[in-house]
Amino acid sequence: MGPAPTLVWFRRDLRIADNPALRDAVEAGPVVCLWVADPGILGRRHHAAPARLRFLRAGLEALDAALRDRGSRLVVRTGVPEEVIPAVAAECGAGAVRWAREVSPLGRARDARVAGALERAGVTAIEDPGDLVAEPEDLPGSSGEGYLVFTPFSRAWMEVPLPPHRPAPRRVDGPELPSDGLGALPDGDPLIPAGPDAARRVLVDFITRGAADRYGTGRDAVAADGTSRLSAYLRFGMVTGAQIGRALGLPDEISAGRMAFWRQVCWREFYHHHLRRHPEVARMALRPKLRDVLWDHDPELLRAWRDGRTGYPFVDAGMRQLAAEGWVHNRARMVVASFLVKDLLIDWRVGETVFMQGLLDGDPANNNGGWQWTAGTGTDAAPWFRVFNPVLQGRRFDPHGAYVRRWVPELRDVPDDRVHEPWRMSDDQQRRAGCVLGGDYPHRVVDHAERRGAALERYRAAAGAAPR
Ligand SMILES: Cc1cc2nc3c(=O)[nH]c(=O)nc-3n(C[C@H](O)[C@H](O)[C@H](O)COP(=O)(O)OP(=O)(O)OC[C@H]3O[C@@H](n4cnc5c(N)ncnc54)[C@H](O)[C@@H]3O)c2cc1C
Protein backbone atom coordinates (compact mmCIF):
# COMPACT_ATOMS: atom_id res chain seq x y z
CA MET A 1 0.00 0.00 0.00
CA GLY A 2 1.35 3.45 -0.95
CA PRO A 3 1.22 6.58 1.18
CA ALA A 4 -2.17 8.08 2.08
CA PRO A 5 -3.17 11.06 -0.05
CA THR A 6 -2.66 14.62 1.18
CA LEU A 7 -5.47 17.10 0.82
CA VAL A 8 -4.29 20.55 -0.30
CA TRP A 9 -6.82 23.21 0.63
CA PHE A 10 -6.48 26.25 -1.67
CA ARG A 11 -7.73 29.61 -0.41
CA ARG A 12 -5.90 32.74 -1.49
CA ASP A 13 -2.91 30.95 -3.04
CA LEU A 14 -4.29 30.26 -6.50
CA ARG A 15 -1.07 29.13 -8.17
CA ILE A 16 0.88 25.92 -8.60
CA ALA A 17 4.43 27.35 -8.76
CA ASP A 18 6.03 28.64 -5.57
CA ASN A 19 3.29 26.96 -3.60
CA PRO A 20 4.93 25.16 -0.65
CA ALA A 21 1.74 23.35 0.40
CA LEU A 22 1.22 21.82 -3.05
CA ARG A 23 4.87 21.12 -3.70
CA ASP A 24 5.47 19.34 -0.37
CA ALA A 25 2.25 17.37 -0.73
CA VAL A 26 3.21 16.19 -4.23
CA GLU A 27 6.63 15.15 -2.98
CA ALA A 28 4.99 13.07 -0.23
CA GLY A 29 2.62 11.11 -2.52
CA PRO A 30 -0.92 11.32 -3.95
CA VAL A 31 -2.73 14.65 -3.71
CA VAL A 32 -6.31 15.91 -3.80
CA CYS A 33 -6.69 19.65 -4.47
CA LEU A 34 -9.69 21.26 -2.81
CA TRP A 35 -11.43 24.62 -2.73
CA VAL A 36 -14.34 25.16 -0.35
CA ALA A 37 -17.18 27.54 -1.17
CA ASP A 38 -17.82 28.72 2.37
CA PRO A 39 -21.26 30.36 2.61
CA GLY A 40 -20.13 32.01 5.85
CA ILE A 41 -17.50 34.00 3.94
CA LEU A 42 -19.16 34.39 0.54
CA GLY A 43 -22.33 35.69 2.16
CA ARG A 44 -20.63 38.28 4.35
CA ARG A 45 -21.15 41.92 3.55
CA HIS A 46 -17.38 42.45 3.65
CA HIS A 47 -16.66 39.63 1.25
CA ALA A 48 -19.44 39.92 -1.24
CA ALA A 49 -17.97 42.23 -3.91
CA PRO A 50 -19.41 40.68 -7.10
CA ALA A 51 -16.47 41.89 -9.25
CA ARG A 52 -13.95 40.29 -6.90
CA LEU A 53 -15.93 37.06 -6.78
CA ARG A 54 -15.98 36.90 -10.59
CA PHE A 55 -12.22 37.41 -10.58
CA LEU A 56 -11.89 34.68 -7.94
CA ARG A 57 -14.00 32.34 -10.02
CA ALA A 58 -11.83 32.91 -13.11
CA GLY A 59 -8.75 32.34 -10.94
CA LEU A 60 -10.14 29.04 -9.70
CA GLU A 61 -10.90 28.02 -13.29
CA ALA A 62 -7.30 28.82 -14.25
CA LEU A 63 -6.07 26.77 -11.29
CA ASP A 64 -8.30 23.86 -12.31
CA ALA A 65 -6.95 24.03 -15.88
CA ALA A 66 -3.33 24.02 -14.63
CA LEU A 67 -4.08 21.00 -12.42
CA ARG A 68 -5.82 19.17 -15.28
CA ASP A 69 -2.71 19.69 -17.43
CA ARG A 70 -0.89 17.76 -14.72
CA GLY A 71 -3.36 14.89 -14.43
CA SER A 72 -5.43 16.26 -11.53
CA ARG A 73 -8.28 18.74 -11.03
CA LEU A 74 -9.66 21.15 -8.48
CA VAL A 75 -12.35 19.55 -6.34
CA VAL A 76 -14.93 22.11 -5.17
CA ARG A 77 -17.21 21.49 -2.21
CA THR A 78 -19.77 23.78 -0.67
CA GLY A 79 -20.27 24.13 3.06
CA VAL A 80 -18.69 25.02 6.37
CA PRO A 81 -14.95 24.21 6.15
CA GLU A 82 -14.72 22.53 9.56
CA GLU A 83 -17.37 20.06 8.39
CA VAL A 84 -16.47 19.76 4.71
CA ILE A 85 -12.72 19.27 5.07
CA PRO A 86 -12.73 16.35 7.55
CA ALA A 87 -15.48 14.78 5.41
CA VAL A 88 -13.41 15.06 2.20
CA ALA A 89 -10.34 13.80 4.08
CA ALA A 90 -12.35 10.72 5.15
CA GLU A 91 -13.74 10.26 1.64
CA CYS A 92 -10.25 9.98 0.09
CA GLY A 93 -8.49 8.48 3.12
CA ALA A 94 -6.18 11.51 3.49
CA GLY A 95 -3.61 11.35 6.27
CA ALA A 96 -2.91 15.09 6.21
CA VAL A 97 -4.42 18.40 5.09
CA ARG A 98 -2.14 21.31 4.17
CA TRP A 99 -2.88 24.95 3.57
CA ALA A 100 -1.09 28.27 3.32
CA ARG A 101 -1.17 30.46 6.41
CA GLU A 102 -3.65 33.35 6.66
CA VAL A 103 -3.32 36.67 8.45
CA SER A 104 -6.90 37.93 8.79
CA PRO A 105 -8.67 37.26 12.11
CA LEU A 106 -11.63 35.72 10.30
CA GLY A 107 -9.39 33.37 8.31
CA ARG A 108 -7.32 32.43 11.32
CA ALA A 109 -10.35 31.66 13.43
CA ARG A 110 -11.71 29.46 10.63
CA ASP A 111 -8.37 27.68 10.25
CA ALA A 112 -8.22 27.01 14.00
CA ARG A 113 -11.70 25.45 13.82
CA VAL A 114 -10.65 23.28 10.86
CA ALA A 115 -7.42 22.21 12.60
CA GLY A 116 -9.45 21.25 15.71
CA ALA A 117 -11.94 19.23 13.68
CA LEU A 118 -9.11 17.43 11.86
CA GLU A 119 -7.37 16.63 15.11
CA ARG A 120 -10.56 15.07 16.44
CA ALA A 121 -10.75 13.02 13.24
CA GLY A 122 -7.13 11.88 13.61
CA VAL A 123 -5.93 13.74 10.50
CA THR A 124 -2.76 15.87 10.59
CA ALA A 125 -3.22 19.57 9.81
CA ILE A 126 -0.16 21.35 8.35
CA GLU A 127 0.03 25.12 7.97
CA ASP A 128 2.57 26.12 5.32
CA PRO A 129 4.06 29.56 4.76
CA GLY A 130 1.76 31.87 2.79
CA ASP A 131 2.83 34.21 0.02
CA LEU A 132 4.82 36.64 2.15
CA VAL A 133 8.53 37.16 1.64
CA ALA A 134 8.95 37.06 5.42
CA GLU A 135 6.58 35.50 7.93
CA PRO A 136 5.79 37.54 11.06
CA GLU A 137 7.97 35.32 13.25
CA ASP A 138 10.93 36.04 10.95
CA LEU A 139 10.73 39.70 11.93
CA PRO A 140 10.11 39.93 15.68
CA GLY A 141 11.72 43.38 16.06
CA SER A 142 13.63 44.37 19.20
CA SER A 143 10.53 44.00 21.42
CA GLY A 144 9.75 40.56 20.06
CA GLU A 145 6.30 41.87 19.14
CA GLY A 146 6.94 43.06 15.62
CA TYR A 147 6.93 46.63 14.34
CA LEU A 148 4.45 49.45 14.70
CA VAL A 149 6.36 51.79 12.39
CA PHE A 150 7.05 51.12 8.73
CA THR A 151 10.63 52.38 8.30
CA PRO A 152 12.35 50.07 10.80
CA PHE A 153 10.16 47.24 9.54
CA SER A 154 11.23 47.89 5.96
CA ARG A 155 14.92 47.98 6.94
CA ALA A 156 14.65 44.56 8.56
CA TRP A 157 12.44 43.20 5.76
CA MET A 158 14.85 44.25 3.03
CA GLU A 159 17.54 42.10 4.68
CA VAL A 160 15.46 38.91 4.49
CA PRO A 161 16.59 36.64 1.62
CA LEU A 162 13.89 35.83 -0.94
CA PRO A 163 12.41 32.36 -0.43
CA PRO A 164 13.88 29.93 -3.01
CA HIS A 165 11.90 29.38 -6.21
CA ARG A 166 9.82 26.19 -6.14
CA PRO A 167 8.78 25.21 -9.66
CA ALA A 168 5.30 23.94 -10.43
CA PRO A 169 5.04 20.15 -10.07
CA ARG A 170 5.06 18.32 -13.42
CA ARG A 171 2.37 15.88 -12.31
CA VAL A 172 -0.22 15.88 -9.58
CA ASP A 173 -1.61 12.39 -9.06
CA GLY A 174 -4.26 11.25 -6.65
CA PRO A 175 -7.72 9.75 -6.25
CA GLU A 176 -10.59 11.23 -8.24
CA LEU A 177 -13.40 12.83 -6.25
CA PRO A 178 -16.67 14.39 -7.39
CA SER A 179 -16.82 18.18 -7.43
CA ASP A 180 -19.71 20.62 -6.82
CA GLY A 181 -18.44 23.08 -9.42
CA LEU A 182 -18.24 26.85 -9.00
CA GLY A 183 -21.96 27.65 -9.05
CA ALA A 184 -21.67 29.45 -5.69
CA LEU A 185 -19.69 32.22 -7.42
CA PRO A 186 -21.06 34.67 -9.99
CA ASP A 187 -20.03 33.90 -13.56
CA GLY A 188 -19.25 36.25 -16.42
CA ASP A 189 -16.03 37.81 -17.61
CA PRO A 190 -13.86 39.23 -14.85
CA LEU A 191 -12.85 42.90 -15.19
CA ILE A 192 -9.25 41.80 -15.79
CA PRO A 193 -7.93 38.38 -16.86
CA ALA A 194 -7.24 36.12 -13.85
CA GLY A 195 -4.57 33.55 -13.03
CA PRO A 196 -0.78 33.31 -12.73
CA ASP A 197 -0.21 33.55 -16.51
CA ALA A 198 -2.12 36.82 -16.65
CA ALA A 199 -0.25 38.06 -13.56
CA ARG A 200 3.05 37.19 -15.19
CA ARG A 201 2.12 39.13 -18.34
CA VAL A 202 1.19 42.19 -16.27
CA LEU A 203 4.44 41.97 -14.30
CA VAL A 204 6.64 41.49 -17.37
CA ASP A 205 4.89 44.35 -19.16
CA PHE A 206 5.37 46.65 -16.15
CA ILE A 207 9.10 45.92 -16.21
CA THR A 208 9.73 45.87 -19.96
CA ARG A 209 7.87 49.11 -20.71
CA GLY A 210 10.15 50.81 -18.20
CA ALA A 211 7.43 51.68 -15.67
CA ALA A 212 9.25 49.83 -12.88
CA ASP A 213 12.42 51.87 -13.49
CA ARG A 214 10.40 55.09 -13.56
CA TYR A 215 8.22 54.12 -10.61
CA GLY A 216 9.85 56.50 -8.11
CA THR A 217 8.80 59.53 -10.14
CA GLY A 218 5.88 58.11 -12.12
CA ARG A 219 3.81 56.35 -9.48
CA ASP A 220 1.84 59.39 -8.33
CA ALA A 221 0.70 60.63 -11.74
CA VAL A 222 -2.88 59.45 -11.46
CA ALA A 223 -3.70 59.74 -15.17
CA ALA A 224 -0.67 57.72 -16.28
CA ASP A 225 -0.14 54.00 -16.23
CA GLY A 226 2.73 54.32 -13.77
CA THR A 227 1.96 51.55 -11.28
CA SER A 228 1.96 47.79 -11.74
CA ARG A 229 -1.72 46.97 -11.25
CA LEU A 230 -0.67 43.70 -9.66
CA SER A 231 -2.76 44.15 -6.52
CA ALA A 232 -5.64 41.81 -7.41
CA TYR A 233 -3.16 39.12 -8.44
CA LEU A 234 -1.31 39.50 -5.15
CA ARG A 235 -4.63 39.42 -3.31
CA PHE A 236 -5.37 35.91 -4.57
CA GLY A 237 -1.80 34.61 -4.63
CA MET A 238 -1.68 34.46 -8.43
CA VAL A 239 1.72 36.09 -8.01
CA THR A 240 3.87 36.33 -4.87
CA GLY A 241 6.16 38.98 -3.46
CA ALA A 242 9.15 36.69 -4.00
CA GLN A 243 8.24 36.16 -7.67
CA ILE A 244 8.05 39.94 -8.08
CA GLY A 245 11.39 40.39 -6.33
CA ARG A 246 13.09 37.89 -8.61
CA ALA A 247 11.57 39.47 -11.73
CA LEU A 248 12.90 42.86 -10.59
CA GLY A 249 16.39 41.37 -10.45
CA LEU A 250 16.82 40.93 -6.68
CA PRO A 251 18.99 40.10 -4.83
CA ASP A 252 21.36 41.91 -7.24
CA GLU A 253 21.46 45.68 -7.27
CA ILE A 254 18.42 47.18 -9.01
CA SER A 255 17.48 50.68 -10.21
CA ALA A 256 16.15 53.30 -7.80
CA GLY A 257 12.73 53.06 -9.46
CA ARG A 258 12.54 49.29 -8.98
CA MET A 259 13.67 49.75 -5.40
CA ALA A 260 10.89 52.29 -4.78
CA PHE A 261 8.42 49.77 -6.17
CA TRP A 262 9.83 46.99 -3.99
CA ARG A 263 9.31 49.28 -1.01
CA GLN A 264 5.59 49.40 -1.85
CA VAL A 265 5.48 45.61 -1.88
CA CYS A 266 7.02 45.92 1.57
CA TRP A 267 4.01 48.03 2.70
CA ARG A 268 1.83 45.11 1.85
CA GLU A 269 3.92 42.81 4.02
CA PHE A 270 3.97 45.39 6.81
CA TYR A 271 0.17 45.53 6.92
CA HIS A 272 -0.08 41.75 6.75
CA HIS A 273 2.25 41.35 9.71
CA HIS A 274 0.40 44.08 11.52
CA LEU A 275 -3.01 42.50 11.12
CA ARG A 276 -1.64 39.15 12.16
CA ARG A 277 -0.15 40.59 15.33
CA HIS A 278 -2.98 43.05 16.11
CA PRO A 279 -6.20 41.39 14.99
CA GLU A 280 -8.22 43.97 16.95
CA VAL A 281 -7.45 46.60 14.26
CA ALA A 282 -9.93 44.84 11.99
CA ARG A 283 -12.64 46.31 14.23
CA MET A 284 -11.19 49.43 15.79
CA ALA A 285 -8.53 52.12 15.68
CA LEU A 286 -5.05 50.96 16.60
CA ARG A 287 -4.54 54.09 18.70
CA PRO A 288 -6.75 53.73 21.80
CA LYS A 289 -7.26 57.50 22.11
CA LEU A 290 -8.77 57.66 18.65
CA ARG A 291 -11.35 54.94 19.21
CA ASP A 292 -13.93 57.46 20.34
CA VAL A 293 -13.98 60.07 17.60
CA LEU A 294 -17.56 61.31 17.22
CA TRP A 295 -18.73 60.43 13.69
CA ASP A 296 -21.70 61.69 11.69
CA HIS A 297 -24.32 59.39 10.20
CA ASP A 298 -25.42 61.19 7.07
CA PRO A 299 -26.78 58.79 4.45
CA GLU A 300 -27.10 61.55 1.85
CA LEU A 301 -23.47 62.61 2.13
CA LEU A 302 -22.40 58.99 2.16
CA ARG A 303 -24.40 58.36 -1.01
CA ALA A 304 -22.89 61.41 -2.72
CA TRP A 305 -19.39 60.10 -1.88
CA ARG A 306 -20.14 56.58 -2.93
CA ASP A 307 -21.71 57.66 -6.22
CA GLY A 308 -18.92 60.11 -7.09
CA ARG A 309 -21.19 63.14 -6.79
CA THR A 310 -19.59 65.26 -4.07
CA GLY A 311 -18.79 68.16 -6.39
CA TYR A 312 -15.07 67.67 -5.71
CA PRO A 313 -13.73 66.37 -9.05
CA PHE A 314 -10.73 64.42 -7.76
CA VAL A 315 -12.86 62.64 -5.17
CA ASP A 316 -15.63 61.92 -7.67
CA ALA A 317 -13.14 60.60 -10.24
CA GLY A 318 -11.69 58.16 -7.70
CA MET A 319 -15.08 56.82 -6.64
CA ARG A 320 -16.25 56.46 -10.24
CA GLN A 321 -13.04 54.62 -11.11
CA LEU A 322 -13.78 52.26 -8.23
CA ALA A 323 -17.26 51.53 -9.59
CA ALA A 324 -16.05 51.05 -13.18
CA GLU A 325 -12.73 49.24 -12.74
CA GLY A 326 -12.76 47.73 -9.26
CA TRP A 327 -9.39 49.45 -8.87
CA VAL A 328 -8.39 52.96 -7.86
CA HIS A 329 -5.01 54.64 -8.08
CA ASN A 330 -3.31 54.76 -4.67
CA ARG A 331 -3.19 58.57 -4.64
CA ALA A 332 -6.90 58.74 -5.36
CA ARG A 333 -7.58 56.12 -2.65
CA MET A 334 -5.87 58.39 -0.14
CA VAL A 335 -7.80 61.45 -1.29
CA VAL A 336 -11.25 59.83 -1.35
CA ALA A 337 -10.60 58.18 2.01
CA SER A 338 -9.44 61.41 3.60
CA PHE A 339 -12.49 63.17 2.18
CA LEU A 340 -14.92 60.66 3.69
CA VAL A 341 -13.27 60.81 7.10
CA LYS A 342 -12.06 64.39 7.42
CA ASP A 343 -14.56 66.26 5.21
CA LEU A 344 -17.73 64.24 5.65
CA LEU A 345 -16.84 63.16 9.21
CA ILE A 346 -17.97 59.62 8.47
CA ASP A 347 -16.37 56.69 10.30
CA TRP A 348 -13.41 55.24 8.36
CA ARG A 349 -14.86 51.76 8.88
CA VAL A 350 -17.81 52.69 6.66
CA GLY A 351 -15.37 53.57 3.88
CA GLU A 352 -13.39 50.42 4.52
CA THR A 353 -16.55 48.39 3.89
CA VAL A 354 -17.44 50.31 0.72
CA PHE A 355 -13.96 49.62 -0.62
CA MET A 356 -14.24 45.93 0.23
CA GLN A 357 -17.52 45.81 -1.65
CA GLY A 358 -15.96 47.27 -4.80
CA LEU A 359 -12.27 46.46 -5.05
CA LEU A 360 -10.88 43.52 -6.99
CA ASP A 361 -7.88 43.71 -4.68
CA GLY A 362 -10.03 44.23 -1.55
CA ASP A 363 -7.83 42.78 1.13
CA PRO A 364 -8.45 42.88 4.90
CA ALA A 365 -4.84 43.77 5.78
CA ASN A 366 -4.07 46.36 3.08
CA ASN A 367 -7.48 47.94 3.14
CA ASN A 368 -7.58 48.29 6.90
CA GLY A 369 -3.99 49.58 6.86
CA GLY A 370 -4.82 52.13 4.16
CA TRP A 371 -7.94 53.39 5.91
CA GLN A 372 -6.32 53.65 9.31
CA TRP A 373 -3.32 55.38 7.71
CA THR A 374 -5.58 57.96 6.10
CA ALA A 375 -7.76 58.39 9.16
CA GLY A 376 -4.61 58.85 11.24
CA THR A 377 -5.71 56.14 13.65
CA GLY A 378 -3.19 53.46 12.72
CA THR A 379 0.50 52.76 12.38
CA ASP A 380 1.39 55.89 10.46
CA ALA A 381 4.04 58.09 12.01
CA ALA A 382 2.30 61.19 10.57
CA PRO A 383 -0.22 62.81 12.90
CA TRP A 384 -4.00 62.62 12.73
CA PHE A 385 -4.24 66.29 11.84
CA ARG A 386 -2.86 65.75 8.34
CA VAL A 387 -5.85 66.39 6.05
CA PHE A 388 -5.68 66.02 2.29
CA ASN A 389 -6.96 69.01 0.36
CA PRO A 390 -8.73 67.53 -2.68
CA VAL A 391 -8.11 70.62 -4.80
CA LEU A 392 -4.38 70.85 -4.08
CA GLN A 393 -3.98 67.10 -4.51
CA GLY A 394 -5.72 67.33 -7.87
CA ARG A 395 -3.63 70.26 -9.06
CA ARG A 396 -0.44 68.51 -8.04
CA PHE A 397 -1.05 64.97 -9.25
CA ASP A 398 -3.43 65.65 -12.13
CA PRO A 399 -2.29 69.08 -13.30
CA HIS A 400 -4.16 69.07 -16.61
CA GLY A 401 -7.20 67.25 -15.28
CA ALA A 402 -6.78 64.22 -17.55
CA TYR A 403 -7.77 61.86 -14.73
CA VAL A 404 -10.85 63.78 -13.64
CA ARG A 405 -11.99 64.33 -17.21
CA ARG A 406 -11.70 60.59 -17.91
CA TRP A 407 -13.92 59.63 -14.99
CA VAL A 408 -16.11 62.72 -14.75
CA PRO A 409 -16.91 63.49 -18.38
CA GLU A 410 -19.18 66.40 -17.36
CA LEU A 411 -15.91 68.28 -16.78
CA ARG A 412 -14.47 67.52 -20.21
CA ASP A 413 -14.51 71.11 -21.46
CA VAL A 414 -13.79 72.85 -18.17
CA PRO A 415 -10.53 74.85 -18.41
CA ASP A 416 -7.47 73.33 -16.69
CA ASP A 417 -7.32 76.04 -14.04
CA ARG A 418 -10.89 75.32 -12.92
CA VAL A 419 -11.08 71.59 -13.45
CA HIS A 420 -10.32 70.78 -9.80
CA GLU A 421 -12.54 73.56 -8.45
CA PRO A 422 -15.38 74.06 -10.93
CA TRP A 423 -17.30 76.21 -8.40
CA ARG A 424 -14.88 79.00 -9.26
CA MET A 425 -16.28 79.22 -12.80
CA SER A 426 -18.54 82.15 -13.55
CA ASP A 427 -22.06 81.39 -14.83
CA ASP A 428 -20.87 82.25 -18.29
CA GLN A 429 -17.83 79.95 -18.05
CA GLN A 430 -20.09 77.15 -16.84
CA ARG A 431 -22.38 77.55 -19.84
CA ARG A 432 -19.48 77.66 -22.27
CA ALA A 433 -17.94 74.53 -20.71
CA GLY A 434 -21.31 72.73 -20.84
CA CYS A 435 -21.01 72.13 -17.13
CA VAL A 436 -23.62 74.06 -15.17
CA LEU A 437 -23.30 73.43 -11.47
CA GLY A 438 -26.41 72.05 -9.82
CA GLY A 439 -27.47 70.67 -13.24
CA ASP A 440 -24.69 68.95 -15.18
CA TYR A 441 -22.46 68.53 -12.15
CA PRO A 442 -23.28 68.89 -8.42
CA HIS A 443 -22.41 71.83 -6.22
CA ARG A 444 -19.84 70.99 -3.54
CA VAL A 445 -21.59 69.01 -0.81
CA VAL A 446 -19.41 70.62 1.87
CA ASP A 447 -16.85 73.37 2.18
CA HIS A 448 -13.44 71.78 2.63
CA ALA A 449 -11.90 74.49 4.82
CA GLU A 450 -14.90 74.50 7.19
CA ARG A 451 -15.10 70.74 7.49
CA ARG A 452 -11.38 70.39 8.03
CA GLY A 453 -11.77 72.58 11.12
CA ALA A 454 -14.72 70.53 12.35
CA ALA A 455 -12.84 67.26 11.84
CA LEU A 456 -9.84 68.50 13.76
CA GLU A 457 -12.17 69.54 16.62
CA ARG A 458 -13.61 66.03 16.75
CA TYR A 459 -10.19 64.40 16.72
CA ARG A 460 -8.88 66.83 19.31
CA ALA A 461 -11.79 66.05 21.60
CA ALA A 462 -11.15 62.31 21.26
CA ALA A 463 -7.37 62.52 21.54
CA GLY A 464 -7.48 65.08 24.32
CA ALA A 465 -4.69 67.02 22.65
CA ALA A 466 -4.35 70.25 20.72
CA PRO A 467 -3.01 69.98 17.19
CA ARG A 468 0.24 71.79 16.64
C1 LIG B 1 -7.72 53.82 1.80
C2 LIG B 1 -6.87 52.79 1.11
C3 LIG B 1 -7.36 51.50 0.92
C4 LIG B 1 -6.57 50.52 0.29
N1 LIG B 1 -7.09 49.26 0.10
C5 LIG B 1 -6.32 48.30 -0.48
C6 LIG B 1 -6.82 46.98 -0.65
O1 LIG B 1 -7.93 46.64 -0.26
N2 LIG B 1 -6.01 46.07 -1.27
C7 LIG B 1 -4.75 46.39 -1.72
O2 LIG B 1 -4.07 45.53 -2.26
N3 LIG B 1 -4.25 47.63 -1.53
C8 LIG B 1 -4.99 48.59 -0.94
N4 LIG B 1 -4.47 49.86 -0.78
C9 LIG B 1 -3.06 50.10 -1.14
C10 LIG B 1 -2.79 50.60 -2.56
O3 LIG B 1 -3.62 51.68 -2.87
C11 LIG B 1 -2.97 49.50 -3.60
O4 LIG B 1 -2.26 48.35 -3.24
C12 LIG B 1 -2.43 49.95 -4.97
O5 LIG B 1 -3.08 51.14 -5.38
C13 LIG B 1 -2.68 48.85 -5.99
O6 LIG B 1 -2.28 49.24 -7.26
P1 LIG B 1 -0.99 48.63 -7.93
O7 LIG B 1 -1.00 47.16 -7.87
O8 LIG B 1 -0.85 49.27 -9.27
O9 LIG B 1 0.14 49.16 -6.94
P2 LIG B 1 1.73 49.39 -7.10
O10 LIG B 1 1.95 50.82 -6.88
O11 LIG B 1 2.15 48.84 -8.42
O12 LIG B 1 2.33 48.57 -5.93
C14 LIG B 1 2.66 47.17 -6.03
C15 LIG B 1 2.02 46.41 -4.92
O13 LIG B 1 2.49 46.84 -3.65
C16 LIG B 1 1.43 46.80 -2.70
N5 LIG B 1 1.15 48.16 -2.24
C17 LIG B 1 1.37 49.31 -2.90
N6 LIG B 1 1.02 50.36 -2.13
C18 LIG B 1 0.56 49.85 -0.98
C19 LIG B 1 0.04 50.42 0.21
N7 LIG B 1 -0.05 51.74 0.38
N8 LIG B 1 -0.36 49.60 1.18
C20 LIG B 1 -0.26 48.26 1.05
N9 LIG B 1 0.21 47.66 -0.05
C21 LIG B 1 0.63 48.45 -1.05
C22 LIG B 1 0.21 46.24 -3.42
O14 LIG B 1 0.13 44.87 -3.19
C23 LIG B 1 0.51 46.57 -4.87
O15 LIG B 1 -0.13 45.71 -5.77
C24 LIG B 1 -5.26 50.85 -0.15
C25 LIG B 1 -4.77 52.16 0.05
C26 LIG B 1 -5.56 53.11 0.67
C27 LIG B 1 -5.03 54.50 0.86
Could you give a short description of this structure?
With 468 residues, the protein is mainly α. It is built from 20 helices and five strands. The protein folds into three domains: 125 residues, 3-Layer(aba) Sandwich (Rossmann fold); 117 residues, Serine Threonine Protein Phosphatase 5, Tetratricopeptide repeat (Alpha Horseshoe), CATH 1.25.40; 176 residues, DNA Cyclobutane Dipyrimidine Photolyase, subunit A, domain 3.
CATH homology superfamily name of the largest domain: DNA Cyclobutane Dipyrimidine Photolyase, subunit A, domain 3
Number of domains: 3
Strand order, largest beta sheet: 3-2-1-4-5
Rounded Rg: 24 Å
- Form type: globular
CATH topology of the largest domain: DNA Cyclobutane Dipyrimidine Photolyase, subunit A, domain 3
Q: At the first level of CATH, what is the class of the largest domain?
A: Mainly Alpha
Averaged pLDDT: 95
- How many angstroms separate the termini? 74 Å
Number of discrete helical segments: 20
Tell me about this structure.
The protein folds into 3 domains: 125 residues, Rossmann fold; 117 residues, Serine Threonine Protein Phosphatase 5, Tetratricopeptide repeat (Alpha Horseshoe), CATH 1.25.40; 176 residues, Orthogonal Bundle (DNA Cyclobutane Dipyrimidine Photolyase, subunit A, domain 3), CATH 1.10.579.10. Helix content is 47%, strand content 6%. Strand 4, helix 5 and strand 5 form a beta-alpha-beta unit. Helix 8 packs across helix 11. The mean pLDDT is 95. The site of flavin-adenine dinucleotide has 28 residues, from helix 9, helix 11, helix 14 and helix 16.
